[in-house]
Amino acid sequence: MTSAGGERDRVLEAKERLGRKLLVLAHHYQRDEIAEVADFRGDSLELARRAAQAAAQYIVFCGVHFMAETAAILARPGQRVLIPREDAGCFLAHSVDRVQLLDAWDRLSAVMDVERELLPVAYVNTTAEVKAFVGGHGGACCTSSSAKEVLSWAIKRSPRVFFIPDQYLGRNTARLLGIPEEEIALWDPHHPPQDLAPFKEKRLILWRGACNVHVRFLPEDVERVRRKHPRVRVIVHPECRPEVAKLADEVGSTSYIIRKVTESTPGTVWAVGTEHRLVARLAKENPDKTVFSLADPPPYCSYMSLTRLSDLARVLSGLLKGKEPGRVEVPGEIADPARAALERMLEAVG
Ligand code: 13P
Ligand code: SF4
Predict the structure, then answer these.
(1) How does residue 4 score in pLDDT terms, banded at 50, 70 and 90?
(2) Which atom of ligand 1 is nearest the CA belonging to 254?
(3) Most buried of 57, 144, 168, 333 (most Cβ within 10 A)?
(4) DSSP alpha helices (H): ranges in the chain?
(5) In terms of CATH, what superfamily is 3-89+304-329?
(6) Pocket of ligand 1, candidates 44, 45, 169, 216: which has the most ligand atoms within 8 Å of its Cβ, to mutate?
(7) What is the pLDDT of residue 350?
(8) Ligand 1 proximity of 158 Cβ (cutoff 6 Å)
């Protein structure tokens, strides 16, 4: 067995040898051992942008599968995207597949002209096939930091928007845009409604999906931390329940949370509602502030936790031997419409 220090040395040495041919990207939820050796750390939007602009021949994506798939869709011909753990999924991405989406589209077509009256918007936390469906129907992707711009883009273009699959991100974003509750309906793919007529009257249809990590934060947690720390600032990710987002002082993407905490004045007390590896790193990097999880015990993303230095080391040594372990490939007929949905997002945010 190789020690953690040995694995780190192997990774650093391989990175040195591969030089500019290699770009290692890491999401903020990755373990410290990965975050520390990555070339760039970011939220989903920043990572998608970095991947799209990268000159490197190999992009090794330390995150979850949909993120690497997004990078592969945006990659230039000849560029290779690799993921150290192919089993790193996402609860949200698993909550919708193409068959369920086709079924919903078909059922809704009984009460509306779906092609003209319903525009799909997919959170990037979806498979390439779901993105391809969305792109093929004129819709766009969004991330947590671009949801407001993309949803606003969509409601200007269509009488109705189908927001897939995170109902809470959808509802939190709708609130920011002033879309009232009465104009929102929920689509449950496991129990499709019998009476479809009400959907015709709505502006926003939300897929009934949620992230198992972010649903752990509850309104009681906000009340508890406010009782214990009267000066606390509560900051949460928009995948949290709307009841929690409404009680928070700030709501934003992982990078937004990092920026707000880092730029706050010394002595500020923060309760953070997102994945715990990010929160623990923020606490370590901001010793002049008090930073802790909004939930007790704090939630971890089991998928993000999968990637270890040994996995990254294995991919990099494979590359040095001319192999491409963990390569993520998306067939052209899926990648092309999926890319259209991603490019619409990138255009909407400028
Ligand atoms: P960000 O876009 O904020 O990085 O979020 C991605 C994610 O998966 C949150 O759970
Ligand atoms: Fe997916 Fe939730 Fe993990 Fe983010 S925290 S990658 S949404 S499972």
Answers:
(1) low
(2) 3
(3) 144
(4) 4-18, 32-35, 44-53, 65-74, 98-108, 114-117, 128-136, 147-157, 167-176, 197-200, 219-228, 242-247, 254-263, 276-285, 309-320, 332-349
(5) NadA-like (3.40.50.10800)
(6) 44
(7) 78
(8) no
Q: Which residues line ligand 2 (CB under 6 A)?
A: 64, 90-92, 125, 211, 213, 239, 275, 301, 303-304
- Domains of the chain by residue range: 3-89+304-329, 93-211, 214-293
Mean pLDDT for all residues in the chain: 96
Domains 93-211 and 214-293 share a fold: yes
pLDDT at 2: 58
Answer whether residue 1 shows pLDDT above 80.
Answer: no
| Level-2 CATH architecture, domain 93-211 | 3-Layer(aba) Sandwich (3.40)
Which of 30, 69, 70, 125 most suits a substitution to test ligand 1, by most atoms within 8 Å of the C-beta? 125
Question: Hey, whose CA ends up nearest to atom 6 of ligand 2?
Answer: 90
Residues forming beta bridges with residue 206, ordered by sequence position: 163, 186
Question: Does the pLDDT of residue 279 top 90, yes or no?
Answer: yes
Using a pLDDT cut of 70, give the percent of the chain over it. Answer: 99
> How many CA atoms are closer than 13 Å to the CA of 55, on its beta-carbon side?
2
| The pLDDT value given to residue 325 | 97
CATH number of the domain located at residue range(s) 214-293 in this protein: 3.40.50.10800
The residue behind tokens 């991330």 is: 143
